[in-house]
Design goal:
Elements (H helix, E strand, L loop, with lengths): L2 H10 L20 E9 L6 H16 L7 E5 L5 E8 L2 H13 L1 H15 L2 E17 L10 E9 L4 H18 L5 E8 L5 E8 L3 H32 E11 L8 H6 L1 H4 L18
Antiparallel strand pairs: 1-3, 1-4, 2-3, 2-8, 4-6, 5-7, 5-8, 6-7
């Protein structure tokens, strides 16, 4: 698949769903700052083992009635890893949240204990901080409580080509507004933690059938652009982007600390019952 096809794939996947632009807050406003923590888990330590370790963080936050929420998710493609998304209205709000957590001795101690246990399961951990670009997003939505999957498409823009990249996204938006006006996506730029030039397109899905719809509706975009428009878009994209990739993740309620409103919206998902312990096998009687 060539670079332009990857770009169109990323955009087409956004057609059938809402945009992931507000990771944690029940407020309808779109937060500007998105912090993404990646945990690469050791082989054999995924699944229930990691969920148990992460539940300690959730329990600590819930006992403290902490006002900042986050979503945890696990990879369905690429290297095995977990992502944790926390959003803030501003950098100032991020600092105030951190300062308050440090002053809460009980919470800090609980988080430290959880981090030590979780660290034994990890190969590595890193963090990136991203800034929301409204002008590069289309019909963004803030309520993510009904989503169950997330597409993350990463674009690496060549040095000095940010202006051209903005024009590429502008052309793509115009095509979708004409051919698929109900498309949704959010675009973020990595401002801390990366090598520079990284942009991510985030898209939430209620179910995987929406991905099927995204692929099917891609032709509508091409028809709306027309042959000459597609040629111009292809050339512009190739001139400013040197790499891209798309990954799929599933929301994990055991690793997520969400608001009571989210839990009430779908308690079966956001507050799943713990699995019942297995019954001991019946003791066999010796043969007579």
């Amino acid at each position: 698949m060539n670079k332009v096809s990857r770009f169109l794939l990323g955009m087409s996947l956004a057609v059938g769903c809402g945009c992931t632009v507000s990771a944690q807050q029940s407020s309808p406003s779109i937060p500007k700052i998105l912090q993404i923590t990646r945990e690469f888990v050791k082989p054999g330590k995924t699944g229930l083992a990691h969920e148990k370790a992460e539940s300690a963080f959730v329990d600590a936050m819930r006992k403290a009635k902490w006002p900042t929420y986050y979503i945890g998710m696990t990879s369905l493609s690429g290297k095995s890893r977990a992502l944790f998304l926390t959003s803030y209205a501003s950098f100032d709000a991020w600092q105030k949240d951190g300062d308050a957590a440090e002053k809460n001795a009980t919470l800090s101690a609980a988080l430290d204990r959880a981090a030590m246990a979780d660290g034994d399961l990890l190969d590595s951990l890193d963090q990136g901080v991203f800034y929301f670009h409204e002008e590069m997003s289309m019909n963004p939505r803030s309520d993510l409580s009904q989503f169950r999957y997330m597409e993350i498409t990463l674009f690496h823009v060549k040095p000095g080509k940010d202006k051209e990249w903005g024009e590429v996204v502008k052309m793509a938006k115009a095509g979708y507004q004409k051919g698929i006006p109900d498309a949704h996506w959010g675009m973020f730029e990595e401002v801390y933690g990366g090598e520079g030039g990284n942009y991510i397109l985030l898209t939430g899905h209620k179910n995987l059938a929406e991905i099927d719809k995204g692929f099917a509706d891609g032709k509508k975009f091409e028809d709306a652009m027309g042959e000459e428009g597609m040629k111009k878009l292809n050339e512009a994209f190739a001139s400013c982007v040197d790499a891209s990739s798309t990954q799929l993740f599933a929301y994990n309620p055991h690793m997520s600390y969400v608001s009571d409103d989210w839990i009430k919206s779908d308690p079966d998902f956001w507050k799943p019952k713990a699995a019942a312990p297995a019954k001991p096998a019946a003791e066999k009687k010796p043969a007579q």
